[in-house]
Amino acid sequence: MDGAHDMGGMDGFGPVVPEANEPLFHAAWERRAFALTLAMARPGGWNIDMTRFARENRSPLDYLSKSYYQIWLAGLERLMAERGLVTSDEIAAARPLHPRRDVAALPADDAGPMLARGAPTERPASAPAHFAIGDRVRARNIHPHTHTRLPRYVRGHAGVVELVHGAHIFPDSHALGAGEQPQWLYTVTFDGRELWGDDGDPTVRISVDAWESYLEPAR
Amino acid sequence: MSEHHHGHSHDHDHSELSDTELRVRALETILTEKGYVEPAALDILIETYETRVGPRNGARVVAKAWTDPAYRARLLKDATAAIAELGYTGRQGEHIVAVENTPATHNMIVCTLCSCYPWSVLGLPPVWYKSAPYRSRAVKEPRAVLADFGVTLPGDTAIRVWDSTAEIRYLVIPMRPDGTEGFSEDQLADLVTRDSMIGTGVAQPPAETV
Fold first, then answer.
1. Taking the model in full, what pTM does it have?
2. Fewest CB atoms within 10 Å of the CB: A85, A116, A181, B4?
3. What one-character DSSP code corresponds to residue A86?
């Protein structure tokens, strides 16, 4: 979706302000919201693409006015509400009001192993790759209302395949619960002038990671 | 007017933060009472990122690449496997690509869509990495962004920006500082900053008084 989260190339946000000796969390609630989000993926049964879509699929005003972990929290609440795990009246009441769903919690003794395993997204490819390193490709001009990982600023622009990463879970379908549907994943590199015209820095090249269906051949 | 606006949003933020705090507490109570989370699991998740996983992991990878040419070659060929050799595996580090700075090319990492970041080698990202200013500008005017960090590159140094939009995570291998001949891996790792592995900084020069 073309949401406020897709920020590449937008003007007006001001300078980057690094913080000296930044703490890992800026408030106790951030630490709790972080851990609750990680712990709830197992009983919730959602995947990373559903999580991203739940965070991003909101009004620009809402997205831009929330801090990073407030967005995490809002995404978690949405995912739980959609599955009937925790509802908004329960959060308002600060206690359970409805029966629990029959789902298994993340056991404490699997928390460490779960982090160490991660969730690799590479899958066996069902067909040969359409593109090879050095091929010239164009990012398709697509605007799905649902989840996608193709940023707006590269759409319609031509670049060169720089890396081929094998086949990976396709987020656009995975976010919708429509299965992994793995596709070839490429790093595609664009010249700054191709993306930003005469305002682009000629010494800059920019790449995105793009699934095969995001791309078409270009001359 | 801008001062008034600033004061207003400041107050607003404060009231929202306490609302948020209450909300998170309520949620933790509900999730625990419903049996959806084990409190001991939360402790482990937090402790892992507060004490075990952080940029020191990445610094060790870089220091080894600086001192061991065979390791550097493996890292550039298959960073996921080379980093796993040192035991740094797992969440948000499942598929890693290492990119090397040279006098001719400076690499810089961003995630314009959210906050993708190689947790297994750098830990959790700083606020600026997840912020709108960084995400919006890194792909359009990286030289100006570097200036915000106090980094000025020669005009003929090419800048290579990697927008981490998928599940590939990138790690910058900064250039080894001059005057570090004979340094041990541990000594070198002390010079590798988090920002130098994102590409918004460079590795620190050795202290002159060492």
1. 0.94
2. B4
3. S
Nearest to B45 among A35, A150, A187 (CB): A35
| A contacts of B133 (beta carbons < 8 Å) | 13-17
What tens digit of pLDDT does each residue of B49-98 get?
999 999 999 999 999 999 999 999 999 999 999 999 999 999 999 999 99
H or E stretch at B17:
helix B2-33
Nearest to B37 among A27, A106, A208 (CB): A106
Confidence of residue B36 (pLDDT cuts 50, 70, 90): very high
Which of the residues B9, B114, B131, B184 is marked catalytic?
B114
Helical ranges in A45-106 per DSSP H: 48-56, 60-65, 68-82, 88-93
Contact between A215 and A136 (Cβ < 8 Å):
no
Assess whether B114 carries a catalytic annotation: yes
Q: How far is A207 from chain B (nearest CA, A)?
A: 5
Q: Is A32 helix (H, G, I), strand (E, B) or coil?
A: helix
Coil, strand or helix: which one is A152? helix
Structure tokens at A126: 């069902």
Q: Give the span between the Cα atoms of B139 and A192, in whole angstroms.
A: 9
Half-sphere CA count of A65, side-chain side, radius 13 A:
12
Q: ipTM strictly over 0.90?
A: yes
Task: Name the residue among A38, A169, A201 with its Cβ closest to that of B141.
Answer: A201
The tally of CA atoms less than 13 A away on the side-chain side of residue A32 is 16
